[in-house]
Amino acid sequence: MSDKKTGRRRILREFTITEISAVDRPAQQMARMVLMKRGEDESSFQTRVSEVAKRHGCSRMAAMRKARVEYPDEFEEYQAEGAVSSRLVVKREALPGAAKAKREFDRAVSELVSSAGISRTAAMSRVRRERPDLYEALQMTG
Fold first, then answer.
1. pTM exceeds 0.70
2. Cβ distance 111 to 103 under 8 Å?
3. CB within 10 Å: which end of the chain, N or C, has fewer?
4. d(Cα 66, Cα 64) in Å, to the nearest integer?
5. Where along the chain do its domains lie?
6. What is the pLDDT of residues 24-45, one digit of tens each?
7. Cα-flanking dihedrals φ and ψ of residue 65, to 5°?
């Protein structure tokens, strides 16, 4: 959307959509949308995020950042339930069996680089295909 007088773009941040229709001539050609589904029950962390948003009068994204700091235990549970944060990285080495799985996968990649004379990236792809057991063990640790 843009303001007709100034030509400046307006961004709608908080609203409720009740219906979406596919059309051949959209009113907002540059508009983009993202749809997400969630269960009916909010986690305790999501409830905390809503409380923080109301208390500080901020967007949900800003409230989530604040709630992560204010309620670390609820945030940890939220992640354990399957909600993933793109900014929070769990160190692979901290997980059980991670070091061994990484060592075995890396050893297989290094051997292939030496024996076949290919790049490390190509060797990783090949080990993934030819040794799914090593790749799966690596994935199970992180």
1. no
2. no
3. N
4. 5
5. 44-80, 92-140
6. 676 776 666 666 655 556 678 8
7. -60, -45
